[in-house]
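Possible regression after last week's pipeline update?

I re-ran a chain I had predicted before the update to compare outputs. Posting the input and the new output here so someone can diff against the archived version. Not blocking, just want to make sure nothing changed silently.
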Amino acid sequence: MLNKNSKVHDMTNGNIYRNLITYSFPVFVGSLFQLFYNIIDTIIVGRFISTEALAAVGSTGLIINIMVYFFLGFSVGAGVLVGQCFGAKDKDSLREAIQTTLTVTFILCIILTVVGYGASAPMLKLIGTPEDVFNDAFVYMRIYCIGISGLLIYNIGGEILRAVGNTLMPLYFLIFSSVANVVLDLVFVLAFDAGVAGVAWATVIAQFLSAMMILVLLTRTKEIYRLEWRNLHVNLSQVKTIFKIGMPAGLQSMITGFANLLAQSYINALGAACMAGWSCFNKLLSIAMLPTGALSSATTNFVSQNTGAKNYPRIKEGITKSNLLNFIFSMVITVVMFIFAEPLIGIYTTDPDVIRYGAIFMHWIIFSIIVYSIGNNLISAMIAAGDSMIPTLIKLSTYVGLRILYLFIIGKFFTGTATTVSLAFPISWTVGAASLYIYYKTIWKNRIGNSDEDTVADIKSHRHL
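New output (post-update):
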């Protein structure tokens, strides 16, 4: 650690399993609470407004995610840089990285708010949103975009804290904002009868609360990651490194989002009940992916810190152990969700057609997250070590290219059904994970540590001149 009393977690020493689990558990709980208020949105919309409103809210998710994916690429790159600086015990570069990261974040907040607000209608039309749900989807998306800065600021602040091993404070802030979101949902929808707009405003206010709390923490802390408002500036060398590391991941996530939009367009053509079933399934799929998301976050932090410390044997051992943990947790949760598919979908709605469609998606897709979790973990590890280009190309060619090709063939030569659309995901995830594993075992694993230039950012060169 940088000092004995610091509230940070040095992952360059100690038991690897303990490091990964200790780090990932608060991230998992925090992600669970973050999903919690999204789930409450869905339940309230589905049970207290209408099936059409449920379909409308669900149809905006992929579009919103595409905007957020670009920023998440930046936040991944920033987190890796901060983690490497921390692992190398380079205080000056760490301070520089914090100020640069937050300055660029504030600029991106303005850009994404304007773009998202203006592109709401064209994007909804692009995916073929039906007329009976278009107005609600448009209202929800525009309000969400007005408050998207809250989400972005919280995410980057949480990334900074997690990069130095402080996973508890982001968790506390999420718990508070999640509870606030639930209360606001009930007030706006049940008391004020504000409909979809009320749900959107509840989410926006909750996100801003979490953003305000994390900014206050970063401003008042005495730790090395303190936000110094008078010292906000952009170090172009660090920005270049952040984008070099993170943007391939961000761009592939955006392109993957467009591929998912293609799948959404096929689902939209099957009617509101299928759209609502897909929306409900995606909420549950997000829960199923929480363990792998938390463990991948732990892997990113673990590898970035040990890359900064140049502890390459520990990196390889950590990846093997994190893959094993991913397999175990994914297997357990997928079995449970497969068995209880219909009751789980029934949490969100009482409509039998919606439940039927949701169960179809669950039964055909859920087991494939086992292989997805391994592939996602390998990508996280390689990006954390500074190698993002090849993993991104592999993911784009399989998760995106293969999925688009499959959907094109289905749409051209076969009748589209919920089952045929579902198969696009297990096919692309399985081929993608297998390709990533082959690359890791045959090339990447043998290269890391043999050439610092290939995998490690030159931290010393990022100091502000």
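Follow-up from reviewer: compared with the archived run. DSSP finds 18 helices and no strands in the chain. Marking as no regression found.
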